[in-house]
Amino acid sequence: MTRRSFSRLLAGLSAAFLMTGIAGQAQANSYAFSSLQLSGYSYTGAATVGTSTIGLNNVAIQTGVPNGSANTLDGSQAYVGPAGTAPSENTFTAKGTVNPDYVRSDSQATATVPSSGVTNTVAEGFLTTGGGQSSGTTSIQISTPFTTTGTSSTVVLSFSATSQLAATVTAPVPATAQANFTYNYTIKDSLGNIVFNSTSQTVPNGIVNQSVSQTTLGSSTVPSTTTPVTFTSGVLAAGSYTATITQTSVVFLTQASAIPEPSSLLMGGMAFGLLGGVFGWRHRKSSRTA
Question: What's the Cα-to-Cα distance from 185 to each of 180, 207, 214, 239, 248, rounded to whole Å?
Answer without folding.
Answer: 17, 13, 29, 19, 12
